[in-house]
Design goal:
This protein is α/β, with parallel strands linked by helices. The protein has 7 helices and 15 strands. The chain has one domain: Ribonuclease Z/Hydroxyacylglutathione hydrolase-like (Metallo-beta-lactamase, Chain A, 4-Layer Sandwich). Strands 1-3-4-5-6-7 form a 6-stranded mixed β-sheet. The protein binds zinc ion (ZN). The site of zinc ion (ZN) has 6 residues, from helix 3.
Length: 265
């Protein structure tokens, strides 16, 4: 397998979004700054016989530095129509924003769109369970998924599903109701596309107990982050985070982790 980091754009995250951490510590870890410029990544994985895209970025938004997905794919030698599978970690705007073109048609005309059943139901099955501030997003979500459904190119899978040889979906709720991690295994190496398991690389690896205000269930998000970091350090998996500047491996240090760039010898 081959993997490319596809940088759709970047967003600024305020340090005050961090939870469960002394603000002075957060500031110090961010180099004295009150905010961190954070990439918005998708990941392109070329597997035997399949070209896979994990998440799709923000899409074009006049108020954001975003929507670079298509040109980034082209730089990797891939057209949108070459993508066979699109996998979604969760339904926040910076992960699903690139699924439709401006005219409302599918941005990936030959791809199957695979989503976690639990995440899909969390947003769309019973809106009354959704926090009120999120309900306004439902029409946009419906437009996205019905475009793929109408084309017979949509499938919701169950937790833990094996999606292709060497590709598995692993439930990682907390950030949202059905947030999901994708693990790719090739020749004894593991790559985990961890979505929004972590937002502030400079803070939350060393202090995984720190959460972010976007986590729907903060306590569960912390537990899940701790559990996955522990497993990642043991298995030497390469972590590909939607909001991390590079691919990393983890080493335990104290109550947290050190990162090593995955691509360095
Ligand atoms: Zn995100």
């Amino acid at each position: 397998m081959e993997v490319w980091v596809i940088r759709d754009g970047q967003i600024s995250l305020e340090a005050s979004l961090l939870q469960g951490l002394d603000p002075a510590d957060a500031r110090r870890m961010l180099g004295g700054k009150d905010a961190a410029m954070t990439p918005v990544n998708a990941f392109l994985v070329r597997m035997p016989g399949k070209t896979v895209l994990v998440d799709t970025g923000i899409g074009k938004d006049p108020e954001e530095d975003s929507g670079h997905l298509t040109e980034q794919l082209a730089a990797a030698g891939v057209q949108a129509s070459d993508i066979d599978l699109v996998l979604i970690t969760h339904y926040h705007f910076d992960h699903i924003g690139g699924l439709l073109k401006a005219d409302g048609t599918r941005a990936f005309p030959k791809a199957q769109l695979l989503v976690p059943r639990r995440e899909h139901d969390f947003w769309l099955q019973d809106p009354s369970r959704l926090p009120e501030r999120l309900r306004g997003r439902i029409p946009k979500l419906k437009a996205i998924f019905s475009a793929y459904e109408r084309a017979g190119a949509f499938r919701a899978f169950e937790e833990g599903a094996s999606l292709a040889p060497g590709l598995r979906a692993v439930a990682a709720q907390g950030h949202t109701g059905g947030h999901t991690i994708y693990t790719f295994t090739s020749e004894g190496h593991e790559l985990w596309c961890i979505g929004d398991l972590i937002h502030f690389g400079a803070v939350q690896f060393a202090r995984p107990e720190a959460g972010i205000a976007f986590d729907l269930d903060g306590e569960m998000a912390v537990q899940i982050r701790q559990a996955f970091f522990l497993k990642a350090a043991r298995s030497k998996a390469v972590l590909a985070g939607s909001h991390l500047p590079q691919l990393v491996r983890l080493e335990p240090k104290g109550a947290g982790y050190l990162t090593r760039p995955a691509l360095q010898p």
